[in-house]
Specification:
82% helix, mainly alpha
Length: 185
């Protein structure tokens, strides 16, 4: 990595400065980053980011071997490590077991919702239910439904609109009666 950092600067004085900083403070910077992150790979990333930032601000470093320079490098490393830590916290990970349990619960919910929807669809008049099933379950477009049922496309759109309204009303009624019966238990 040292050669990478050296290649980023132009003058021989800057190259010498970067080399001295790297050799003198790399371990200290790694230790500081590791104390915050508790992960060796992320600590290395923090040190790398710190060196990139130091190279951009190389003119602010007068002496390579001083307490002030060490403090400057430590502060930069701490800030970058904290940024990495915050980013990691935002990107929360979920274990495979948690994910599979969530998927299974969603499938059960979808299954019960589908059963409820089909039961409610059976209460609709046939001409509305047929158009809704052809459109949303089978994926036919309005022209194809009109051809299958031997009606006009306008009639298909009208039945879809009225069928959805009736279905919504029936589902609201079923939902209300379920919640009332659940409250009585």
């Amino acid at each position: 990595m040292l050669y990478f950092y050296i290649s980023m600067v132009e003058t021989p004085e800057e190259k010498t400065k970067v080399e001295q900083l790297y050799l003198n403070y790399r371990q200290t910077m790694y230790h500081v980053a590791y104390q915050i992150l508790k992960d060796s790979f992320e600590a290395e990333d923090a040190v790398h980011g710190a060196f990139l930032r130091v190279i951009k601000n190389l003119d602010k470093i007068d002496e390579t071997n001083s307490h002030r320079t060490r403090a400057f490098l430590v502060v930069i490393t701490e800030h970058i490590a904290i940024d990495i830590y915050r980013k990691r916290k935002r990107e929360t990970t979920v274990s495979y077991d948690e994910l599979s349990m969530y998927i299974a619960s969603q499938e059960n919910l979808e299954e019960s919702s589908s059963k409820d929807l089909l039961a409610t669809m059976n209460k609709l008049p046939v001409h509305y239910a047929a158009v809704l099933l052809l459109k949303y379950s089978q994926g036919y477009d309005d022209a194809e439904i009109a051809g299958l049922l031997n009606i006009t496309e306008e009639n298909v759109r009208q039945r879809l609109c009225r069928g959805k309204k009736k279905l919504k009303n029936l589902m609201d009624l079923d939902g209300g009666s379920k919640s009332e019966s659940e409250q009585q238990r």
